[in-house]
Amino acid sequence: MNRTDVAVLGGGPAGLAAALALRQRGCRVALYDAQRPPIDKACGEGLMPEAVRLLRGLGVALDERDGVNFAGISFHDAHSSASAAFSSGRGLAVRRTHLQKRMAARAAEMGIVLHWGASVQARAGGGFASANVPIHAEFFVIADGLCSTLTAASGFRERNCYSTRYASRQQFRCAPWSDLVEVHWRDREQLYIAPLGDDEVGVSLLTSTRGRRLTDALPDFPAVAHRLAGKALTSSVRGAVTRTRSLREVIRGNVAVLGDASGSVDAVTGEGLLSAFRQAHALADAITAGKLEYYAMAHAHMTKAPRRMARLLLLLDRYPWLERRFVATMATRPETFAEMLRVHLAEQTWSGLMWSEATAMWMGRRDTKGDPRVDTSLDQGPWLPYATHRERGL
After folding, report:
1. May I ask the CATH architecture of the domain 5-60+95-161+245-310?
2. Which residues contact 301 (CB under 8 A, 6 or more apart)?
3. Which of 1, 142, 285, 365 has its CA 20 to 30 A from that of 205?
């Protein structure tokens, strides 16, 4: 294999994962970021089981000393709750700053040249420069996040962008009350609760209302507000924008885009880092093979399932009555909720889920008729995929 020089432009978890994966494959890698570690960002702080495994494969072995294991996901609203455990291990809730610091330390250990505090600009004639000095590399990887300035400057065009929403996050000094990441639903917004330590929880708000922060919304989630009443804050509030968007292309010449810079789904899916880590491995394989088009094909395949899940969850966000029926139904069909979680983690396909559901209904194993908790008027077929199909213009 020929040795390949790569410049990674962005030092968040996505850029660091790409740099680590490339270095593992024998590439000489330099990484640039205008900030200095640890770099924080407003986001949920839960790593899915596969994300933990991918990090371990990169030599970043996180465990309980770095955060708190969590067993699955639960949905809650004012009327019902549903939960599902992971079928392939446990996730890890870890502070974003700690994750980025651990990944940066691993990058330094592997001999990646790290340029912290070095802003990068796209040059008019092509290529990139830092402090007016051209960056020489055979390949460039743009991984500077959702609001990337380098993608547009490099000629990457946006295909679509919709569902702009707003996020804010804080941590509280409070013992976790569950080993699940909780998602609390209310009209047009969600509250995420993740355990971060023996005496700390992270709370993130996703809302459609511009300017609305976690402190504004917390009283509208009385169950959570009661648990956090009087608890000290362990961080300042951080805000961000979250969007569902895609680009017309993810490679141009010798430049590739990665992570949120390459397109994103609404943060309601909670799997942004997992997608970035998957992309990092695919990109490293493509670059070491000298075939960036392999990455473009892999990226298109990888983003299909997350976009479908985002459409589904945004459908629930848009129509509160549908969300209430969904959570109530999942509360009485935990097997279905667990299978949907497997779809989300790419352990099951949508077609496989539909076949499983059809078989279960035919065999009568999940018959809810007569259960007063469930409105069976929607049980005349695969109502949820049909609703999602009708809303495909989201």
Report:
1. 3-Layer(bba) Sandwich (3.50)
2. none
3. 142
Those residues with Cβ within 8 angstroms of residue 212's Cβ, 6 or more apart along the chain or in another chain? 166, 189, 205
What are the structural domain ranges in the chain? Answer: 5-60+95-161+245-310, 331-390
Q: Which two tokens stand for residue 222?
A: 């009385």
Q: What is the pLDDT of residues 154-175, one digit of tens each?
A: 999 988 777 788 988 888 999 9
Within 10 angstroms of residue 129's Cβ, the number of other Cβ atoms is 13
Compute the chain's Rg from CA coordinates: 21
Are residues 140 and 120 in contact, defined by beta-carbon separation less than 8 angstroms?
no
Do residues 151 and 159 touch, judged by C-beta distance below 8 A?
Answer: no
Amino acid, res. 133: V
Which residues are bridge partners to 161 per DSSP? 245
Give the contacts of 336 (CB within 8 A, at least 6 positions apart).
Answer: 329, 330, 357, 360, 366
Q: Where does residue 59 fall: left (phi above 0), alpha (psi -120 to 50 degrees), or beta otherwise?
A: left
C-alpha–C-alpha distance, residues 125 and 145, integer Å: 23
Q: CB burial class (10 A; 0-12, 13-18, 19+) of residue 97?
A: middle
* pLDDT digit string, tens, across residues 36-87: 887 776 565 788 999 999 999 999 988 778 888 999 999 999 999 999 999 8
